[in-house]
Amino acid sequence: MASIHAILRTRPNKQGLYPLAIRVTQERKSTIIQLGQFIDKKHWDDKKQIIRKSHPNSVRMNNLISSKISEINNSILEAIHTFGDYFTIDDFKSLRLKTSANNSFFTFSDKYFNDLEAAKKFSRLDSEVPLVKKIKEMRAGRDLLFNQITVPYIKHLIVQLKKEGKIGERSIANVLMFIRKIYNLAITENLANRESYPFGDSDGKIRIKIPESIKIGLNREEVTKLEEADFGKKQHLNHARNIWLFSFYLAGMRVADVIKAKWRDFNDGRYYYRMSKNQQIVSLKISEQLDHIISQYRPDSGEHSIYIFPELEGVDPKNEEEIFNRTKRATDKFNKNLKKIAKELKITKKMSMHIARHTFGNIASDKIAPRKLQKLYRHQHLSTTTNYQGNFIHQDVDDALDAVINS
């Protein structure tokens, strides 16, 4: 009888997280079915083949593993029914490949989105669901099977998207990268044919070219303008400025993490938080400038507030979907107000929450060695650090943080 085991693959992604998968073994031969989820190795219990409770989404992700094992079990029973007890791994793979419902790109995408929703990956859902919608619009109600995703189809899709003119080059690249991702996942689940794979670097294959984006951070003089600006009774502008500076003072902290900042996370002159993007714990020194921002939101004696900023007031910290929705609305509001601030202060550069991250990197570039920046940003590759600037850790980089903020 075939055996099924949940496993953690040994090769990490760029964020240093390891992929979850299911290994199916029959007659001493195995095939691997990827789950499309990644975790830190410390959260994996290899003996029990489950995610430890230390992972913030352990319950949901363990349910995903159980659901996938149940689905694969059904495929094995179907293989036994079709080929007999001594079916081969190739029989199992071919049976899954021939399943018409699973051979649909759109059906498989829906299943992928259901898995994301179960894992509470709302940010990825928000960015990727519109990509499938765009592909469906181009299909005009017709289904799309994996064996129809050929080089000519991809080239025609690119022409259609450019001709429509509603999205730019980067968005077109995002559509292609999503198709590539889903196709690769379907291959790992034996639901698409590797031989027909249209992407790659060899002649005749589709190479996805990501256009360079220009994100110019503010200089020190422009940051000083923000720090010294007085917007009077325009509290919405004061608040947007404070949020932006909070991010900048913490080395370009992502806006989702800024909005979720809690009072309990401030201890002994440091701020401790778990990064939303990769779940790593980060410790940052609280500068005088940051403390000045925080003091404006400190509740009066006797009042109780979980979050520093009001955007998540009244939201259950466990309600991840509502937190995501509120964060998205708040970010849109901040960005609109930051544009107004830039106009008032005669700052000609684009102002947004994300630019706070690039601003820190811009000012830090000639003050902090690249290797130290790589450590600060928690990047696996130095090349990522040189293109993007990120988050601080502990003692030996506090001076670097001060050097940028107090320059």
Automatic annotation (TrEMBL):
GO BP field: DNA integration; DNA recombination
Protein source organism: Aquimarina algiphila
Membrane keyword on record: no
Name of this chain's protein: Tyrosine-type recombinase/integrase
Residue ranges of domain Tyr recombinase in the record: 213-402
Domain of life assignment: Bacteria
GO molecular function: DNA binding
Protein family: Belongs to the 'phage' integrase family.
